[in-house]
């Protein structure tokens, strides 16, 4: 059986969300996984341990989350497409490794299955840490799937973005969708877009490791190919040499952050439902977009002009799309399953144009469509 046939299980499946992550990673070309047990992400490690040997990849049962995240960097620099998966408490331990991967421009993928502190109940409480957890100046790409199908699709996209921009990419999963079984359609191999990192076009003695256009990522050779490169967290010049120089430091971080912010249109994705004439615009991401969409459908049947902006990319913030609905709608409703964290970003973008109300829930349970519909009705007053 050809490798693509082993990797890509083309067809229609009834699949667990965590298993869909694995299948998406393998379809994207993942050939290294390191993980440490933690619920509710364990099915990812378990399924990866079963599937990875069949495609010639490597599976590492790490002794902790620090080992997992740093093993990813080593594997990625050796040429692998590398991923780990954890849950909220485990993600705490990975911040140093994420900061290193940002500074050294290492393409890795991290799946965080969010859970309530110490318990496997539903939440979206990691949403700010996913952006701001690592030290130092940085941007972060964070994708927010809302279904088993999107867990598959967005994991592939996470690898493609990591490879293109040489940066960590986070898939923000949740207890709700991770442990849910739904229909999953896996396309044929030639229907799946795959992006691979740029490789040097010059021999080692002519290669400048960290030279790139201001808003681009430099090529990345593999360890063992003869390119001697120092991959350091410390401020470094284009050759990779460590030396404190304010101008060098500023130039480096303008490029590292600029390659994300300047490519907004390539990175940021949203879905829109009934927004053409919406007077009440809901904004939701992840699993909360499911009851939000149903609530909008109910409201429409009652003659209420409600719509939904579903954020598939939450970092960078979809400011253009939020700005558009703020200029059109009479009110924006921010729907979240936490104490109201990302709502602050929505308010920052929208409040100059229209008022924003928060629909929050922090009880380990997703909103019901009835609860959101009731909030829509109350907003009319």
Written account of the structure:
By secondary structure, the protein is an alpha/beta fold. The chain folds into 2 domains: 189 residues, Rossmann fold; 111 residues, 3-Layer(aba) Sandwich (Rossmann fold), CATH 3.40.50.920. It is 38% helix and 19% strand. It contains 15 helices and 14 strands. The strands form 3 sheets. A 7-stranded mixed beta sheet has the order 3-2-4-5-7-6-12, with helices on both faces. Strands 9-11-10-13-14 form a 5-stranded mixed beta sheet, sandwiched between helices. Strand 2, helix 3 and strand 3 form a beta-alpha-beta unit. Helix 2 packs parallel to helix 8, helix 4 packs parallel to helix 6 and helix 12 packs across helix 15. The protein starts with a helix and ends with a helix.
Features:
five-stranded mixed sheet, single chain, seven-stranded mixed sheet, 381 residues, 14 strands, Rossmann fold, 15 helices, alpha/beta, 2 domains, 19% strand
In helices, the fraction of residues equals 25-40%
Classified by CATH, the class of the largest domain is Alpha Beta
**The CATH superfamily title of the largest domain:** Thiamin diphosphate (ThDP)-binding fold, Pyr/PP domains
- Biggest beta sheet summary: 7 strands, mixed
Report the order of strands and helices.
HEHEHEHEHHEHEHEHEHHEEHEEHEHEH
**CATH-defined fold name of the largest domain:** Rossmann fold
Number of domains in the coordinates? Answer: 2
The total of helices stands at 15
Structural class: alpha/beta
Radius of gyration: 21 Å
Q: Could you give the count of β-strands?
A: 14
Can you tell me the residue ranges where pLDDT is under 50 for at least 5 consecutive residues? none
CATH architectural arrangement of the largest domain: 3-Layer(aba) Sandwich
Mean of residue pLDDT values: 96
Indicate the overall shape: globular
- Measured between the Cα atoms of the first and last residue, the distance is 63 Å
Give the strand content: 15-25%
Main β-sheet, spatial strand arrangement: 3-2-4-5-7-6-12
């Amino acid at each position: 059986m050809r490798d693509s046939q082993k990797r890509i299980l083309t067809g229609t499946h009834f699949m667990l969300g965590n298993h869909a992550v694995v299948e998406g990673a393998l379809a994207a070309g993942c050939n290294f996984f390191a993980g440490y047990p933690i619920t509710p992400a364990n099915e990812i490690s378990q399924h990866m341990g079963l599937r990875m040997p069949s495609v010639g990849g490597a599976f590492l049962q790490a002794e902790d989350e620090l080992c997992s995240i740093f093993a990813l960097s080593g594997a990625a620099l050796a040429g692998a497409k590398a991923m780990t998966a954890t849950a909220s408490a485990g993600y705490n331990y990975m911040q140093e490794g994420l900061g290193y991967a940002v500074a050294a421009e290492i393409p890795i993928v991290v799946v965080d299955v969010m859970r309530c502190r110490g318990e496997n109940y539903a939440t979206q409480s990691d949403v700010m840490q996913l952006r701001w957890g690592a030290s130092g100046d940085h941007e972060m790409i964070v994708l927010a799937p809302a279904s088993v199908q999107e867990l598959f699709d967005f994991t592939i996209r996470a690898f493609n973005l990591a490879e293109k921009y040489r940066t960590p990419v986070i898939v923000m999963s949740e207890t709700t969708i991770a442990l849910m079984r739904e229909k999953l359609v896996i396309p044929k191999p030639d229907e799946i877009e795959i992006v691979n990192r740029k490789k040097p076009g010059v021999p080692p003695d002519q290669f400048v490791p960290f030279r790139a256009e201001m808003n681009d990522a430099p090529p990345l050779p593999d360890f063992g190919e003869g390119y001697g490169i120092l991959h350091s967290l410390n401020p470094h010049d284009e050759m990779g040499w460590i030396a404190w120089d304010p101008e060098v430091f500023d130039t480096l971080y303008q490029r590292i952050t600029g390659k994300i912010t300047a490519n907004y249109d390539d990175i940021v994705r949203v879905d829109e439902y009934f927004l053409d004439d919406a007077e009440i615009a809901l904004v939701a991401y992840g699993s909360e977009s499911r009851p939000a969409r149903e609530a909008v459908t109910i409201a429409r049947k009652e003659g209420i002009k409600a719509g939904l902006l579903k954020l598939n990319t939450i970092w960078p913030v979809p400011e253009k799309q939020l700005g558009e609905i703020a200029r059109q709608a009479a009110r924006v409703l921010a729907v979240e399953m936490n104490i109201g964290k990302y709502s602050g970003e929505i308010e920052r973008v929208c409040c100059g144009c229209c008022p924003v109300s928060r629909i929050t829930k922090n009880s380990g349970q997703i909103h019901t469509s009835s609860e959101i519909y009731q909030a829509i009705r109350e907003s009319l007053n």
